[in-house]
TrEMBL record:
It comes from Cinara cedri. This is Asparaginase-like 1, metazoa,Peptidase T2, asparaginase 2,Nucleophile aminohydrolases, N-terminal. One of its GO terms (cellular component) is cytoplasm. The active site is at T170 (nucleophile). InterPro entries: ASRGL1_meta (IPR033844), Ntn_hydrolases_N (IPR029055), Peptidase_T2 (IPR000246).
Amino acid sequence: MSGPVIVVHGGAGSIPDSRDQQKFDGMCAAIRAAHYAYETTSSITEACQAAVECMEDDEAFNAGRGSVLNLKGEIEMEALFMEGKDMNAGSVTGVKNIAHPIALARKVMENTPHVLLMGQSANDFAVKSGFEAVPDDYLMTSHAKIALDNFLKSGSQPITTEIGQGSVGTVGAIGMDVNGHMVSCTSTGGITGKMAGRVGDTPIPGAGGYCNNEVGTISTTGHGDSIMRYCLASKIMHHLENGNDPNIAAQKACESMSSRVGGSAGAIVISKDGKIGIGFSSPKMAWAFLENRIIHYGIKHGQHLTTDL
Ligand SMILES: NC(=O)C[C@H](N)C(=O)O
């Protein structure tokens, strides 16, 4: 392999066509950030973190700034960082007032004996780790407020549909370096109208993501309560272990999840031989990857666009 493999997603669900271009722009920026980080550090860990941080800063996505609101009108964010050489993992849930939950998940992975820290304790750990607090005003966008208002008026259950604007858009980045070392990163605000304290799939290894150099790396998105019940990332790993092509592994697992437990989902995958897989049972999933200095991207089933790095 001549270079690293880097794939990102910007969320699965029902996304109005008017939002497509923002997602494309944000994902292409994330791929460029990852490429720059890799060129300057030769680290796939830095590259994937840079991609996710770029999307956490972009209010077109439901992660970091732009995160959706729970029933109390608050932001509670979640993230998972995982490395494939020893399946080390770090994650956070229910964190508030930080710009980059993915960076905090990495600190949990590298600097604690644990996998998952929650709520105020995760925020206390952020302070100890030198993270600056950011105000609610920075994280909370008008899109997220409109989405909660529309959700409350509709009286429906929290799902991954853009009710109004801003509900979909969990972000993920997966990568493999030239030595076959793999990383998986996922970050989200969850789903609009979730109960306060609800934990979704994103921070759970085997659901929101997984990474094992001997098999592959995965980041998922979609209806988290369904993804957890189905252990979506773990199912995709099984399909890879059974020799399935990563595209088939991702598509098959998302469709089986939808027919078995309901909800819809999407996943990005890299297998240990560097092949990329993209699959979703939702109407749309924003995805992008880099190959030979060309960015490939799309959001609808069957769509495949390209642009220069
Ligand atoms: N859009 C998403 O991917 C939402 C996320 N999986 C959750 O349910 O928390």
